[in-house]
Amino acid sequence: MSELEVLESIFPDFISTNQPHQPDKFESFLKLEIPIDLGEPYTVVLVDDVTDSNVATLSLTSLPPLLLHVVLSAAYPSQGPPAVTVRAHHSWLPTPLLWRLQAILRGMWTPGEGVLYEWVEIIRGGDFLGSLDLKSSRVIQIKHPSPQLLGPLLVSYDDSTRSANFSQGSYPCAICLTSIKGSKCLQLSCIHIFCRSCLLDYWSLCITEGNIEKLGCPDPECIKMGRESSEEEIARVVSEQAVQRWRWLKQKFMFEKDPSLTHCPMMFCQSPVPKPPDSESDAGIDRLRICPACSFSFCGFCKRTWHGAVQECPISHAETVVLEYLALAEDSSERHVMELRFGRTMLRKLVARYQEEQLNKKWLAASTVACPGCSVNIEKNLGCNHMTCSRGCGTHFCYRCAAKLNPSDPYKHFSTPGQPCFSKLFDFVSEDHEWQPF
C-alpha cells in the first residue's frame, strides 16, 4: 500500500484532491486541508501587528485549518522532499510565518522516508505553533494586521467545530437515563448534558407553574448553587410563547424583590424602571426616572413627564396632603382651597390610593409574615411553620414568630423545650375551618 493510500485510509476527510503518485510520471499534485484541534481550551491573544498592543483575548479549542498544496516529484521520497505551499483559512496565520512553516515541513524530510503523515500530525495537533514561537505554556499569541476582524472569525469557527463534534457523539441524559445522540441533546454552560425532550418538559412545567427560580440546570449540584439558565439556552428549548411568559415572570419577581422599581407610565411600554444610582433621598433629582426601553423621563411620584427637581411634585408629600384633606369638613373653605391647589381629580386619586394602601397594609399585617432575610411578605394556608423563602434569599424562618432558623437544623426551633414555638411545628384546623395555633 502506498503512502497516499495509507494517509487516505487514516485521514479521509483531510484529502480534498488526490491524484495518486505514479513513479513513471514527472510529478503529481495533492491538496490537504488539515483542521487544528488543540485538545483543550487555550488562551489565544490577538496582537495588533502595527501598534504591538493586545486587542482581544479568546478561549479556543480549535483553529481554522491550514491548506497544503503538495507537489510530489518523481524523486520523492528517495532523493528529494515534496514541494509544499501553505495557506491559512481566514488568513489567521501571517504570510511570514507561513513561509517559516513551509521551511520547517521541508526540513522534516528524511531521504527514502515518507513525510506526509508527519506533516499532518504536527499540524492537526497544533505542535507547529511552538516551532513558530506562537505557543508558550497554554497561551497562543497571534500578531495580525486586522485583529478586530480576525477575532469573531476564530470564535465562530471554534463554536461551529465544537457543535459539529458534539452532534456526532452520544451522551447519557441524567433525567431519563438514556444515551441520546448529541444532535438531540443540549450542553448547558455548566457542562451538564440533557436531552432536549427532558429539558422541554422540565422547563415548560417550571414556566407554567411560575417557578422560574428553578429554571436552570436540573443537576442536584447546580440546583444547590441556584444556577439559572440564560435566555439563549431557554429559547433553544421552549417555545416563543413560553419565553415571553418567562420574561414577564422575571420582571414580576424583580418588582417583588426591589421596591424601588417602578413601571414606565407609557401604555405601550410598561417596562421596569430602576431607581437612579447614587441618588440622595432628600434631593429633588431622586424623583427622576428614565425608562431604559423607551427613554421616557418622568417623575417617580406622580408618574407625569419630568417637571424638574426644583418644582414641587403635587404628590411628593401625598400622605400628608391626604390626611389634611380628610380632616377637613365637607363644606370647609380650606378643603376647597386644597382642591384648587392640587386639583379635585388629583386629590381623589390620592385619597383612593391612600385608602387602598392602608387596606393592603392591614391585610399584610393580619395575613402574612415578612421574610427576615429580604422582607418579602409570605402567606401560608397549609403545611408546617418551617418556611424557606423562595424569592431569592433562601432564608429559613419560623412563620409564627418570624425568627431565622439554622438551615442545617431548622426543626430545633420547634423541638427545644422552653421556646415559644416548642411543639408548634403544625397548626390545626378548627371546626369552623379557621387556622388556630396550638
From TrEMBL:
SMART domains: IBR, RWD. It is an enzyme of class 2 (transferase). It comes from the Eukaryota. Residues 169-425, 173-218 form the RING-type domain. Residues 2-132 form the RWD domain. The keyword Transferase applies. Its EC number is 2.3.2.31. It is a single-pass membrane protein. It catalyses: [E2 ubiquitin-conjugating enzyme]-S-ubiquitinyl-L-cysteine + [acceptor protein]-L-lysine = [E2 ubiquitin-conjugating enzyme]-L-cysteine + [acceptor protein]-N(6)-ubiquitinyl-L-lysine. It is found in: Membrane. Pathway: Protein modification; protein ubiquitination. The keyword Zinc applies. One of its GO terms (cellular component) is organelle membrane. One of its GO terms (molecular function) is zinc ion binding. Keywords: Membrane, Metal-binding, Repeat, Transferase, Transmembrane, Transmembrane helix, Ubl conjugation pathway, Zinc, Zinc-finger. Belongs to the RBR family. RNF14 subfamily. This is RBR-type E3 ubiquitin transferase. It comes from Mycena belliarum. The lineage of its organism: Eukaryota, Fungi, Dikarya, Basidiomycota, Agaricomycotina.
